[in-house]
């Protein structure tokens, strides 16, 4: 039962955080950011929000700085939108798994192309 509640809360936080990113944050440092996952602690006191940021290393670092500076605002907004006894402490974590997956696919495709080129027809 508690596991199901944690999943519902995680999904709700993911939706609301995405909405806050799109509509409410006006920081120019925060470019194209998408939420990849949300994990809520067992006691609902902490939430880890994993984000993927599109761009080079400088823009990623800048976006993370913008998100870090907006954490108080984000937590306040989540508290208003999600009815919990206590608003969880927000931890925003950069997630590069999408980029790593994309890079692995590129490498596999390169390998396939090179194998086709090495075999005589």
Automatic annotation (TrEMBL):
Q: Where located?
A: Cytoplasm
Q: Which GO terms describe its biological process?
A: maturation of SSU-rRNA
Q: Which GO terms describe its cellular component?
A: cytosol
The record's GO molecular-function terms, alphabetically, read:
ribosomal small subunit binding
Q: Which gene encodes it?
A: rbfA
Give the keywords, sorted. Answer: Cytoplasm, Ribosome biogenesis
Q: Do you know which HAMAP family this protein is assigned to?
A: RbfA
Task of the protein: One of several proteins that assist in the late maturation steps of the functional core of the 30S ribosomal subunit. Associates with free 30S ribosomal subunits (but not with 30S subunits that are part of 70S ribosomes or polysomes). Required for efficient processing of 16S rRNA. May interact with the 5'-terminal helix region of 16S rRNA.
Its source organism is Hydrogenispora ethanolica
Top-rank taxon, per record: Bacteria
Family affiliation = Belongs to the RbfA family.
Quaternary structure note: Monomer. Binds 30S ribosomal subunits, but not 50S ribosomal subunits or 70S ribosomes.
Q: What is this protein called?
A: Ribosome-binding factor A
């Amino acid at each position: 039962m508690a596991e199901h509640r944690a999943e519902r809360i995680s999904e709700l936080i993911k939706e609301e955080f995405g909405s806050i990113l799109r509509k409410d944050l006006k920081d120019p440092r925060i470019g194209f950011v998408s939420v990849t996952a949300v994990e809520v602690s067992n006691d609902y006191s902490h939430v880890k929000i994993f984000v993927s940021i599109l761009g080079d290393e400088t823009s990623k670092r800048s976006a993370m700085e913008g998100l870090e500076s907006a954490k108080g605002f984000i937590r306040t907004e989540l508290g208003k939108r999600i009815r919990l006894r206590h608003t969880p402490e927000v931890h925003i974590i950069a997630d590069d798994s999408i980029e790593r997956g994309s890079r692995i696919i590129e490498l596999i495709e390169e390998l396939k192309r090179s194998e086709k080129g090495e075999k005589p027809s």
